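User: Quick sanity check before I run a bigger batch. Here is a single chain. Can you write out its predicted 3D structure?
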Amino acid sequence: MSEYLMEVKDLKKYFKTRSGMLHAVDGVTFSLRPGETLGVVGESGCGKSTLGRTLVKLLEPTEGQILFEGEDITYARGVQLKRLRTRIQMIFQDPFSSLNPRKTVRESILEPLKLNSALSARQREEQVLELMNTVGLAQRLAHSYPHELDGGRRQRIGIARALALNPAFIVCDEPVSALDVSIQAQILNLMQDVQEDQHLAYLFITHDLSVVRHMANQILVMYLGQMVELTSADVLFERQMHPYTQALLSAIPVPSLEKRRQRIILRGEITSPINPPAGCRFAPRCPYVTERCTAQTPELYEAAPGHFVACHRGGEVG
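Assistant: Done. Predicted structure follows.
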């Protein structure tokens, strides 16, 4: 039995367009243990959400392998896929659009229990109330509709739905980006409490590096579908080996009048993800670019213990 809950090996997801193949996810590899959180960061359009949707089987992978609890689920179908629906769940970015406006809070949480559990009607009702209590929703809201609630309460419904079938792994696709800062803290603390109580594993997708530092054990940095850096959260914020990661972290504001972080401004054209040429996709914007960067695609390698980087000059840059 593997020590890892989720193992992803060279995962690729391409989309056919009129201009060619769009490389949305291109060779992602990682392992995740129970109870851990892997943060996935990068600019909009880098493939974060596509990666998450591929892992929960909303999208079919083009190549690669996905192992879950030691079982190959890359092309799961039928009974295997239905069983996976109880073990792998997703919390979506926009809590308003991810809920059915015609269903009350009770009905929204009850739906997955009706479809995927063998509980009696009475047991299901008890489970709904228990889930509402777990995520901090007052029972008086059971018959309220999504439009009658604020964003924080709507996202709590989404979390309750994700927890309804006792999953082991949850993809969190920017679950707090649509919320006010004060509400964000409440939701993040709730997610950490639930993770600790139920020993859940999270794939936490976000563009907010302050949030991912608070939530993640490891951080995976993506650029135009590819992994460029992977290491623990503590190490990444201490030493970045890829110039793109350095630029991302330089954008985090420092709450101090004395200390100023030197901002790295990226210039140059972004490489097209449709039929990308050989070489590093970050090369047109990289301040350290060499001829080798434009001719040869860098492979992900372990530049330091537990610190992986895809850069020809990774060790020097960091």
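The longest strand covers residues 20-32.

User: Great, the batch can go ahead then.
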